[in-house]
Specification:
Elements (H helix, E strand, L loop, with lengths): L2 H5 L3 H11 L7 H6 L9 E6 L2 E4 L3 E2 L4 H8 L5 E5 L13 E5 L2 H11 L7 E4 L5 H10 L4 E5 L2 H13 L5 E4 L12 E6 L8 H5 L1 E11 L7 E7 L5 E8 L15 H5 L9 E5 L9 H10 L3 E7 L5 E7 L5 E6 L6 E6 L4 H14 L8 E6 L2 E6 L13
Parallel strand pairs: 6-7, 6-9, 7-8, 9-10
Antiparallel strand pairs: 1-2, 1-3, 1-4, 4-5, 10-11, 11-12, 12-18, 13-17, 14-15, 15-16, 16-17, 18-19
Helix pairs in contact: 10-11
Length: about 400
């Protein structure tokens, strides 16, 4: 049993753990105490694990109350919906589509929001309603607007919010559109990841206002960015932490099966063979995936594992024109690569990885994002130092 399991036995234990980590600050402690997490967790859940995108099997409160309670007061995310509500268990569905976020992430993002009394906040992604309730306690329900695309989730969250004594403006709709009727907002907080910042969010935020959102490229790797909106309608700011959120439905990317890339032929089909000294194992950590993904747009990896610990790293582009594979075997100094199509995806990824190494292996805290009339640019250390793009959009 981990330290978090012991400390997460109840609200006070979880609060202590969050304060030790520096996630829960004194200004958010009263909201935490007044808005207990268990009031916003449904009967049926799939407990997650801290720092990992994995879920345990389904837990039903009436059947396993102690397991349910322990999951609620552990510093870990809780999946509350699979496959946009079409799967209810037992076991797990294919794609998690709604959750109650890891408490460390919840309070770290609320801290980054830097709210002040009287400010109006737009939340994108109501989920179970806990985040909206915390904001309502801090700012007053009249200053909180929350948008949820899933009607069932929105209605259940509304019930929980009302039962807890809160009455924010709750909207069922596409979060990418924001909520113009309540604009302008002083703050916008997003509880789903994006790969591009919707213009509506910036347009609905006051100059000087702040947008806090998970942002990540198609490839993988994701961080929380804190953007400040300028008078000219641009927005810019640093990444403040790593994150791992479910994608905004409006920005989900369809991942076509490898057989579509091979055109019915067996691997390696028409792939060109080469070798590389770069181990596929060096490419799997979140910060390096982020750095690669920013440089290699509209491409994504997939690992095909084998029983002996070896694996094939597949790379594919979203346009279904190009693919590459790199085979990993332990203790090898060179690794076999095949690639096909107009984009040489392994070459792009390898060049991006070497750039990241040359910059000193930067973490998220050295990256930032600017959104303006010219589009979006991720930068390193300064807005005038954009990260290079290796692939073709």
């Amino acid at each position: 049993m981990s330290t978090d399991d012991v400390k997460g036995a109840g609200p006070e234990g979880l609060a202590s753990a969050l304060m030790e980590k520096g996630a829960l600050t004194s200004d958010w402690l009263p909201a935490y105490q007044a808005v207990p997490r268990h009031l916003f967790i449904p009967e049926m859940i799939w407990p997650g694990r801290a720092g990992m995108n994995r879920q345990d099997d389904r837990v039903i409160r009436s059947e396993e109350p102690d397991v349910w309670w322990s999951a609620v007061y552990r510093d870990a995310p809780i999946t509350t919906q699979w496959d946009d509500g079409s799967y209810a268990g037992p076991g797990k569905g294919k794609i998690p589509s709604s959750s109650n976020s890891m408490p460390t992430m919840v309070f770290s993002m609320l801290d980054a929001l830097s709210v002040e009394p009287g400010q109006r906040v737009l939340e994108i992604g109501t989920g179970t309603g806990w985040n909206a309730a915390l904001l309502c306690h801090r700012l007053g329900s009249e200053n909180v607007f929350t948008v949820e695309v899933d009607g069932d989730s929105a209605r259940e969250a509304r019930k929980r919010l009302n039962a807890a004594g809160f009455d924010p403006v709750s909207i069922i709709g596409d979060g990418a559109e924001g909520y113009a009727e309540g604009a302008p907002y002083d703050r916008v907080i997003v509880t789903a990841s994006i790969g591009r910042v919707p213009r509506r969010w910036i347009e609905q935020t006051k100059p000087g206002g702040i947008i806090v959102s998970p942002w990540g490229p198609t490839y993988g790797g994701e961080g929380v960015v804190r953007l400040t909106v300028a008078e000219d309608g641009s927005a810019s700011g640093p990444f403040v932490s790593s994150s791992a959120f479910m994608r905004l439905r409006d920005q989900r990317v369809k991942r076509t099966h490898v057989r579509e890339y091979l055109g019915g032929r067996k691997w390696p089909a028409d792939g060109t063979r080469s070798v590389t000294p770069i181990s596929p194992d060096a490419l799997g950590d979140w910060p390096v995936m982020f750095a690669i993904g920013v440089q290699v747009p509209e491409a994504f990896p997939w690992m095909e594992s084998y029983g002996d610990g070896s694996y094939t790293l597949w790379l594919r582009d979203t346009a279904v024109t190009s693919w590459a594979t790199a085979d990993y075997e332990k203790d090898r100094e060179e690794f076999e690569v095949y690639q096909s199509g107009p984009r040489k995806l392994w070459d792009e990824v390898e060049t991006a990885y070497l750039w990241w190494e040359k910059q000193g292996r930067p973490g998220f805290e050295r990256f930032g994002l600017t959104v303006d009339g010219d589009g979006e640019r991720v930068w390193l250390d300064s807005p005038d130092n954009p990260v290079p793009i290796r692939g073709s959009l």
